[in-house]
């Protein structure tokens, strides 16, 4: 089961499982456990807020690369398909997300 911070507008409902109809708010105030969020399902706002050093452009590239191809099967696949991801950024992503 995948978990995320759910919110509607500015009111927070807290941590709960993702569902098909869940709106994931881009703002967040805490840190999830490492590896709790899936890089293949996170939107650009979640990627930016949970991963230090990733801005709008890189987060959008990750989401776009995932949308144009199959989900990422490996961390190397992520690095190969998304420009601007080097070893340092990849390590940061691997600490926060899972495949």
Explain the overall architecture:
The protein has helices at residues 44-50, 56-68, 75-81, 87-96; strands spanning 3-8, 11-17, 37-38, 97-98. By secondary structure, the chain is of the alpha+beta class. Strand 1 and strand 2 form a beta hairpin. Strands 1-2 form a two-stranded antiparallel ribbon. A two-stranded parallel ribbon has the order 3-4.
pLDDT averaged residue by residue: 75
SSE-based structural type? alpha+beta
Q: From N to C, what is the helix and strand string?
A: EEEHHHHE
The strand line-up of the biggest sheet is 1-2
Which range best describes the helical content: under 10%, 10-25%, 25-40%, 40-55%, 55-70% or over 70%?
Answer: 25-40%
Observed structural traits:
two-stranded parallel sheet, 99 residues, single chain, 4 helices, alpha+beta, two-stranded antiparallel sheet
Give the arrangement of secondary structure elements:
Elements: E1 3-8, E2 11-17, E3 37-38, H1 44-50, H2 56-68, H3 75-81, H4 87-96, E4 97-98
Parallel strand pairs: 3-4
Antiparallel strand pairs: 1-2
Short description:
With 99 residues, this protein is an alpha+beta fold. Helices cover 37% and strands 17% of the residues. The chain has one domain.
